[in-house]
Design a protein that fits this description.
18 strands; single chain; globular; 16-stranded antiparallel β-barrel; 385 residues; mainly beta; 49% strand; Porin; 7% helix
């Protein structure tokens, strides 16, 4: 991602106005981002007609975003920096989250040539977004897309961006790496429930990155944000493991992800498990259960560059087994498959045309979920700056 220096005149004017009192002294302050727009088609199984529209946030291969970053060298190999990033919809210009100025990243970090430590709002390791994405570091998704039916993050443990987080990583592009992440949940949880009952998330990752082979593991632990109120049981903690790897053959490349999770309270980042398992008559199975869902996920993808062209394909399968209360539920187990094709044409180093299509099909328990039973297609343009 290429960064562009902010004009000194703009910084000087902002400093004079009192908006950025220290901006003029910043050694390296840059703006960056991506603008993506296009059209999409989406048809859910059983629907008479599909939906066609202009792509919004989460409906393009990479989400539109705008960021500011800065870094200062402190001497003796030490540095300190910041990163502030917001997601938005190009169809309306609206921020993705109205109550957050920087919903994707808001962090202050420090480090040296060996290690970096960050604090703030940070994405977990199983997101596709920087700064600490293990998926991206290991090139685990060759489709380079977060679209429906294409992204492994929609099937595996993925809690997205977390408040009150601290993370570290070892620096270096090649060789052995270690990363750690901890979040104490959201500010509202901290105020209402106190430290001990927050939605804690812990991740640890380690692996190897080489010129051709990249391989690693991510361990996950989460205390759900459903709290004991004297009438409902405490939900059991989620645990899981990702095993990821990729191999570059000097052009064509292949990647794979395996995930095994216990007591998951979501599939991917979507909060639709409540409706999935409530059963006939609207029983409160989700709220009343101590045990969640066991998940087994496999995902493979391939990529092939040809000059300005890049072709990719992905195939994923998920097995879900609900272990909690099953009152009035016809099914407690289900399987879903997703297959996708993605194409990019590089107009320049920063501008791409894209097109893609995916097909998802769920069975039994997962036959009731729209996102696992649909056809999705898209075409558009994205530009990095």
């Amino acid at each position: 991602m290429k960064l562009k220096p902010i004009s000194k005149a703009i910084l000087a004017a902002a400093a004079a106005a009192g908006i950025m009192p220290f901006a003029a002294q910043a050694a390296d302050v840059n703006v960056y981002g991506l603008v993506a727009t296009g059209l999409y088609y989406q048809k859910t199984e059983g629907a008479d007609n599909g939906n066609v529209g202009m792509a919004q946030y989460k409906q393009t291969p990479t989400d539109s975003h705008f960021g500011i970053t800065g870094r200062e060298d402190l001497g003796n190999g030490l540095y300190v920096g910041f990163q502030l990033e917001n997601g938005y919809s190009t169809d309306s210009g609206a921020m993705w989250e109205n109550d957050r100025l920087f919903n994707r990243v808001a962090r202050l970090y420090a480090g040296n040539s060996q290690i970096e430590v960050s604090m703030g709002r940070i994405s977990t390791f199983t997101c596709a977004s920087d700064p600490y994405s293990v998926f991206r570091k290991l090139r685990a998704n060759m489709t380079a897309s977060g679209l429906p039916g294409m992204a492994p993050a929609t099937m595996v443990f993925n809690v997205g961006e977390m408040d009150n987080a601290i993370a570290f990583r070892t620096n270096g592009d090649d060789g052995f790496f270690v990363q750690g992440f901890y979040s104490n949940g959201s500010s509202s949880e901290e105020t209402e429930y106190g430290w001990s009952n927050n939605n804690h998330v812990i991740q640890a990752a380690f692996g190897w990155t080489g010129q051709s082979l990249r391989i690693g593991t991510v361990l996950n632990w989460e205390r759900p944000s459903s709290h004991t109120d004297g009438t409902k049981p405490r939900k059991n903690e989620t645990t899981g493991i990702h095993i990821l790897g990729s191999y570059d053959f000097g052009g064509p490349a292949v990647s794979a992800i395996f995930y095994k999770g216990s007591n998951d309270w979501r599939i991917g980042g979507a909060p639709d498990m409540v409706s999935m398992i409530k059963g006939v008559g609207g029983s409160t199975n989700y709220a009343d259960s101590e045990d969640g869902m066991d998940l087994t996920v496999g995902f493979v993808s391939v990529g092939y560059p040809m000059g300005a062209h890049f072709f990719s394909a992905g195939l994923g399968v998920i097995n879900a087994d609900w272990k909690g209360i099953s009152t009035n539920m016809k099914e407690t187990k289900g399987t879903a498959y997703q297959a996708s094709l993605m194409y990019y044409y590089n107009l320049s180093k920063r501008t791409q045309l894209y097109s893609g299509v995916s097909y998802s099909d769920g069975d039994k328990l997962l036959d009731t979920v729209d996102r696992f039973n649909q056809i999705f297609g898209t075409v558009g343009l994205q530009h990095r700056f």
